[in-house]
Amino acid sequence: MLRKTMQMQAQWKGVNKLPKLFPQYKNEKYAKQMEEIEHRFEAKHDEEKKVSEITIYGVIGNSYWEKSISAKQVVDALNEAGDNDIVIRLNSPGGDAFEGITISNRLREHKGKVTTHIDGYACSAASLFPPASDETIMGLGAMVMIHEATTIVWGSKKDMRKEADVLEKLEKGIIDIYMTVAKVDREEIETMVDNETWFTAQEAVAIGFASKVTEIKKPEEPTQSTQPQQLDSETYKNNIMARFMENKPEPVSTPTNNFLNKFKRGS
Predict the structure, then answer these.
(1) Which residues of 215-234 are buried (b: 16+ CB within 10 A; e: fewer)?
(2) 244: which of 7, 90, 226, 238 is 20 to 30 A away, CA to CA?
(3) Does residue 86 contact residue 107 with C-beta atoms inside 8 Å?
(4) 5-213: which CATH topology?
């Protein structure tokens, strides 16, 4: 979570371009993938099927320096959907915690069924969407990440302590959201948040952050009727002879054949 104090700090330093909203995670091996998530937000409403699909790819929040997806955009899309069921396609590195909380609460209050498909990542603020969904489906290779609330602030030691108190309260509220679906004790979730924990699709299902992993249809195994029949040599020979006799051509009547037939009969 980055606050307006970041903007103040940048102005004070005379910086023309503000730093990215993208946070620096403790586990930096995923940082490159996070930065490469392409921004995409769209809402499609099918009134005939009563289903609305909302695509949320990219940073959550109101960013001054890069494309982002605000709570207002998502709320407007939900209002347009009316009572439709909602299908969310999610791939996000996270962003502003308060924006994420707002989206989470509005998803929870929606009258229709809410299904979230995690196509890639549901990190930080974006990890608050699955607990608010009626069903969360993890794509193969998709991940969920939870971590401490963070900010950048400029000021005195009193300002720093005050901001730390705000972060602690914010974090308690975020953990409250996780606990609506978590299958472990609160203390365990608190430890996971402090340590920045990444969950594979299967781990997310196990802990309660997702309902299931995308099912992949496997090729059907040949049934007994489609398998080549194994025949012993004698049966195979008899079958060949039977087909041959069935298709045996009729003898052609010729003068030579007629003479030979009479000769054989002694006539």
Answers:
(1) eeeeeeeeeeeeeeeeeeee
(2) 226
(3) yes
(4) 2-enoyl-CoA Hydratase; Chain A, domain 1 (3.90.226)
Find the angle CA(101)-CA(106)-CA(111) to the nearest 5 degrees.
150
Domain ranges of the chain: 5-213, 233-264
| Nearest residue to 42 (alpha-carbon basis) of 32, 53, 30 | 53
Per-residue pLDDT tens over the stretch 98-132: 999 999 999 999 999 999 999 999 999 999 999 99
Contact of 123 with 23, CB cutoff 8 Å: no
6 in Cβ contact with 19 (< 8 Å): yes
Whether the model pTM is above 0.85: no
The predicted-structure confidence for 190-217, as pLDDT tens digits, reads as follows 999 999 999 999 999 999 999 999 987 7
DSSP secondary structure code for residue 231 in this structure: -
Question: What does the block give as tokens for 170?
Answer: 């914010």
* Integer Cα distance of 74 and 43 in angstroms: 9
> What phi and psi, each to the nearest 5 degrees, are found at residue 228?
-65, 135
Q: How far apart are CA 108 and CA 104, in angstroms?
A: 6
